[in-house]
Amino acid sequence: YLARLVFPHKCTEFEVDVEVIADMTVINPFDFFVEDYAQDYPFAYDEQVQKELLPYLELLDGGPLFRKFLATVNTKKRAINDFLVELNQQVQGDIEYLVRLEPGVQTPEETLQEARGSCRDSAWLLVQLLRHLGLAAHLIEGLAHLRHRRVDAALAELQPHPPQHEDGQRQHRQ
Q: What is the rounded distance in angstroms from the CA atom of residue 3 to the CA atom of residue 155?
């Protein structure tokens, strides 16, 4: 806690004045490197990378609404960033955001049926769309520490290559 107040007696009035100082640093979400083979969508992983990314390529069976949505995704060849931005816009345009306090993640079919969901529901839908489109992706859920700031969010993260240890060596899954 930053502050703790204890009142030994009942009060008839209580007023709180809060001042917020926020770091408004501009962060470029496209400040990352893309492997040469993945510059344009669609692309194919080489055989060894494909094996290492299997956990991030696992598909759930999609229902009729998921298959219908997937069929509307524009899969023409273009820069990977453009493809990802368009796909995100398509999900954001079709799924209304809501704060959902229930635990767990909706299935992509439930999210599409309701046409609304929390950030984790939309992120899980996006992960499954990416996987069905041949891209390795996984869900990051809960309190993520991004640039030393606590952010309550769910993100879909594209995996262009296998995860690496802090020393730069690839992590190999058994």
A: 31
- Report the distance separating Cα 11 and Cα 28, nearest Å: 48
Main-chain dihedrals φ then ψ at residue 17, nearest 5 degrees: -115, 120
Tokens 């306090």 locate to 101
| Cα 119 from Cα 142, distance rounded (Å) | 10
- What is the per-residue pLDDT across 1-45, written as a single tens digit (0 to 9) for each? 577 878 888 888 888 888 888 888 888 777 778 889 999 999 999
**DSSP annotation of 54:** G
The pair of three-digit structure tokens given for residue 109, joined into one six-digit string: 């079919």
Please name which of 132, 126, 110 lies closest in space to residue 61, comparing C-alpha atoms.
132
Q: Would the CA dihedral through 111, 114, 116, 118 be positive or negative?
A: negative
**Among positive and negative, which fits the CA dihedral 58, 94, 80, 66?**
positive
What is the pTM (predicted TM-score) of this model? 0.71
